[in-house]
Each structure stands twice: as C-alpha cells, then as structure tokens.
Here is the input.
Amino acid sequence: MATKLQKKVVRILKEEMPDIKAFFEPTDSGLVTGAVVSRRFARMQFLQRQRLLQRVLRKGLTADENQKVGTIAALTPAEAEVPA
Here is the structure.
C-alpha cells in the first residue's frame, strides 16, 4: 500500500511529466525508493535524469520530506521492458 509521501511524490512528478508511471515499494527504513518510467527521459543521460527528478521534487516537497526520498531509478519505457 502506498504511503502518503509516495502518493505526494507521484502527484508532484505527474505535474511535470504526465505520462510517468511510478513503481514504489514500502521499505523498512520508510524511504521512498523505486523506479519511475517516462518518455521524458529519452535522450537524457543518467545524471540529467536524476537532476530533473531532484529539481521537481525539491520544488514540491518540504526539506523534511525530501530527506525521506531515497534512490529512484529513472527509465524510459523501452528501458523498463522486461522480457517474459
């Protein structure tokens, strides 16, 4: 079940990237971690993707909430495909 902070992170990211799909799992530490998938990440290097996520989340989260956001992988739809 998604936590309140996970839902807020998804809402904030969707405002910037409406096509985003988020995959978060609860963690024992309480950190929000997981992966997000968006076409927006196409032709972006790893660091550019992370900076985009940081910029968007920094604008929408409090400093305390930002401290509770852990690693989030940023993938394109093609990168997220897993062969069956």
In short: The radius of gyration is 12 Å. The helical segments are 4-16, 46-60, 63-67, 77-80. Strands lie at 21-25, 32-37, 69-75. The chain has a mean pLDDT of 94.
